[in-house]
């Protein structure tokens, strides 16, 4: 695994901890948790606050991605079953791969990228649902919100690669602005929050890791690595999330888990390794 992919994997591992950590903050208003967490995450780069100044397009893309993702996802959780919304939001790695040729001139898709992403997404959906998913038309607005979250994160990631490179520390500015917007929504639409001491600690961990350091790692990965490979690797997020829930005693693996794990690992391998090492000549791009 090359260095850029290590950055991507580090971000994915930190995001995978969100389900485990968030279980301890589920009684708190979600935009309060996101707002405080993002502002805490921005403190990781506050010593380089001068590097928060970037071209307007970069700043707009950063806030669009970070705030937009949480906005759509939290609304999806309110309007649709959490499991269904989670599965649909995990379309973002597949979208990253499929949208690469449209948003990144000169990028071509090989059969290994497409197949790897499809297999990985199927595995991700299987491990989240256990093979049981029942969509309801009454929850359609929530499903659209979840898909919106996936579209936002995929396009934000690809635009990060397309826009002029900027300092990773600029992500702190994106987090700070996104945190202020989330807190604004909290005060406007949610009841007052009264976290316990333990919940404050969990929010701090969420802020410094998945809402802070993870975004820094992801920004570096997107500027340096092939987005088709990074997108395929993203399917490992629900796998790692599930394993963390199991390790913490909050979930258990069932019979479908082994199949799902094989699909995720196999899909990631197919999508991230060079096509000539995996496919016959007639399948290569």
UniProtKB/TrEMBL annotation:
Keywords on record: Membrane, Transmembrane, Transmembrane helix
Top-rank taxon of the source lineage equals: Bacteria
Which organism does this sequence originate in?
Chromobacterium amazonense
- Membrane spanning segments where? 31-49, 61-80, 86-104, 111-128, 140-159, 171-188, 200-218, 230-251, 257-275
Q: Where is the EamA domain?
A: 4-129, 141-270
Q: What's the source species' lineage?
A: Bacteria, Pseudomonadati, Pseudomonadota, Betaproteobacteria, Neisseriales
Give the InterPro entries listed for this entry: EamA_dom, EmrE-like
Q: What is this protein called?
A: DMT family transporter
Question: Which Pfam families did the record assign?
Answer: EamA (PF00892)
């Amino acid at each position: 695994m090359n260095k850029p992919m290590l950055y991507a994997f580090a971000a994915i591992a930190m995001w995978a901890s969100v389900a485990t950590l968030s279980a301890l903050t589920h009684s708190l208003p979600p935009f309060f948790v996101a707002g405080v967490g993002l502002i805490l995450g921005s403190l990781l780069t506050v010593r380089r606050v001068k590097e928060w100044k970037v071209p307007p397009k970069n700043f707009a893309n950063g806030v669009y991605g970070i705030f937009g993702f949480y906005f759509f996802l939290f609304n999806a959780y309110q309007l649709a079953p959490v499991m269904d919304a989670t599965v649909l939001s995990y379309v973002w790695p597949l979208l990253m791969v499929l949208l690469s040729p449209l948003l990144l001139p000169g990028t071509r898709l090989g059969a290994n990228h497409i197949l790897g992403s499809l297999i990985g997404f199927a595995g991700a959906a299987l491990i989240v649902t256990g093979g049981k998913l029942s969509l309801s038309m009454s929850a359609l607005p929530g499903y659209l919100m979840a898909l919106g979250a996936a579209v936002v994160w995929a396009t934000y990631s690809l635009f990060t690669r397309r826009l002029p490179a900027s300092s990773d520390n600029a992500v702190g500015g994106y987090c700070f602005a996104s945190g202020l917007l989330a807190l604004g929504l909290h005060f406007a639409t949610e009841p007052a929050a009264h976290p316990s001491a333990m919940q404050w600690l969990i929010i701090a961990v969420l802020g410094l890791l998945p809402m802070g350091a993870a975004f820094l790692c992801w920004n570096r990965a997107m500027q340096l690595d092939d987005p088709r490979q990074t997108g395929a690797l993203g399917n490992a997020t629900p796998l790692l999330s599930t394993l963390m829930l199991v390790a913490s005693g909050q979930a258990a693996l069932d019979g479908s888990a082994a199949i799902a794990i094989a699909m995720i690992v196999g899909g990631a391998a197919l999508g991230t390794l060079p096509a000539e090492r995996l496919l016959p000549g007639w399948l290569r791009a």
